[in-house]
């Protein structure tokens, strides 16, 4: 039977990059750390780490075992959290990741309210425009917007939102836009991480679905919705952005909604979580909490 403490020591060595650094992190001696990793290799009958005088690296077997160790340790921690749970609420650590923009506007306020219900639960939120590896980076839940790519993780649909073409009054004073052909010829600001950032299915006022494609390449590109918004506010061109992000700027007149009688495809909001045999109560509770807030329009 595998020793979970040895798994934790092995993972600490990989994360720290050396036995010495792992010993400092764990508060143990280097000899104890080295002994436990060696015993783990003996029990498995394979070498997990390739050792040299200059660096430490994973063998092929070690790389596979490292990923499995992360899953086993997470499942053990989830089981302990659920056993410890009592009438005082959830406990342990809940790690959430989302994009910075949606995180600041929706996820963080939800986490603040959720923490009030479960004061013994320690919450960590990480803002990132990049899609993190939930297992390797030990996230319990990732909030994803848009079309969901194929994934080995479980996904819970939370809500959906409209995306709107917008531009500043200064830009429109130079280049008015009153039709789809004019919109296709505009100076576009595109999201660099989308596979097809300048092509969408659009519903016309006659309720017809047409393929809208921008003529030519994007004039400007950014890797976040915040960057696209800033470009648009400064009169750089047209951007397609979430309604919840541009609502206030449209209301204040800083941005103009283009072709309001046309509909661009709605985008979905998902909660992704690791596909483990045991879904921890803290994950189920937080996803239910987000769904309830979405249903109330929060």
UniProtKB/TrEMBL annotation:
Family annotation (CDD domains): PBP2_CrgA_like
Annotated InterPro entries: LysR-type_TF_proteobact-type (IPR058163), LysR_HTH_N (IPR000847), LysR_subst-bd (IPR005119), WH-like_DNA-bd_sf (IPR036388), WH_DNA-bd_sf (IPR036390)
Pfam families: HTH_1, LysR_substrate
GO molecular-function term, one example from the UniProt record: DNA-binding transcription factor activity
Signal sequence extent: none
Record carries keyword Cytoplasm: no
Keywords: Coiled coil, DNA-binding, Repressor, Transcription, Transcription regulation
Coiled coil (UniProt feature): 66-93
Alphabetical list of Gene3D superfamilies matching this protein: 3.40.190.290, Winged helix-like DNA-binding domain superfamily/Winged helix DNA-binding domain
Family: Belongs to the LysR transcriptional regulatory family.
Protein name: D-malate degradation protein R
Origin species: Serratia ficaria
Higher taxonomy: Bacteria, Pseudomonadati, Pseudomonadota, Gammaproteobacteria, Enterobacterales
Gene that this sequence comes from: dmlR_29
């Amino acid at each position: 039977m595998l020793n979970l403490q040895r798994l934790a020591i092995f993972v600490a060595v990989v994360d720290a990059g050396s036995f010495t650094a792992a010993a400092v992190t764990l508060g143990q001696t280097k000899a104890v750390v080295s002994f436990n990793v060696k015993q783990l290799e003996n029990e498995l009958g394979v070498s997990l780490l390739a050792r040299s005088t200059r660096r430490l690296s994973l063998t092929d077997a070690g790389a596979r075992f490292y990923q499995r160790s992360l899953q086993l340790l997470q499942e053990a921690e989830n089981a302990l959290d659920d056993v410890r749970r009592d009438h005082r609420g959830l406990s342990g650590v809940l790690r959430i990741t989302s994009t910075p923009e949606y995180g600041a506007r929706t996820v963080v306020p939800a986490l603040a309210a959720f923490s009030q219900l479960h004061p013994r639960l320690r919450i960590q939120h990480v803002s990132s425009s990049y899609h993190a590896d939930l297992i390797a980076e030990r996230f319990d839940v990732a909030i994803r917007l848009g079309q969901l790519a194929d994934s080995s993780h479980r996904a819970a649909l939370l809500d959906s939102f409209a995306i709107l073409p917008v531009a500043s009054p200064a830009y429109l004073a130079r280049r008015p836009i009153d039709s789809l052909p004019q919109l296709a010829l505009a100076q576009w600001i595109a999201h660099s991480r989308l596979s097809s950032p300048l092509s969408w299915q659009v519903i016309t006022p006659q309720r017809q679905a047409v393929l809208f494609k921008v003529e030519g390449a994007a004039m400007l590109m950014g890797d976040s919705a915040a960057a696209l918004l800033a470009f648009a506010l400064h009169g750089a061109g047209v951007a397609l952005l979430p309604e919840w992000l541009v609502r206030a700027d449209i209301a204040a007149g800083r941005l103009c909604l283009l072709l309001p009688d046309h509909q661009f495809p709605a985008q979905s909001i998902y909660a992704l979580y690791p596909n483990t045999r045991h879904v921890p109560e803290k994950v189920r509770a937080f996803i239910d909490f987000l769904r309830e807030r979405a249903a109330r329009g929060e």
